Amino acid sequence: MLELKGIHKYYNPGTVNEMCLFRGFDLKIEQGEFLSVVGSNGSGKTSMLNIICGSIPAESGQILMGGKDITKEKEFQRNARIGRVYQNPAMGTCPTMTILENMSLADNKGKIYGLGRGTNKARIEFYREQLKQLNLGLEDKLDVKVGALSGGQRQAMALLMSTMTPIEFLILDEHTAALDPKTAELIMELTDKIVKEKNLTTIMVTHNLRYAVEYGNRLIMMHEGNVILDKKDEEKKQISVEDILTLFNEISIGRSMAKRIAQFEKVSFGQFKEGFFDTFGQTEEEKLQEIYEEIRLPKRATAGSAGYDFYTPVPLTVRPGETVKIPTGIRVKMDPDWVLKCYPRSGLGFKYRLQLNNTVGIIDSDYFYSDNEGHIFAKITNDSNEGKTVNIQAGTGFMQGIFVEYGITVDDEATGIRNGGFGSTTEKK
Question: Does the reported pTM lie above 0.85?
Answer without folding.
Answer: no
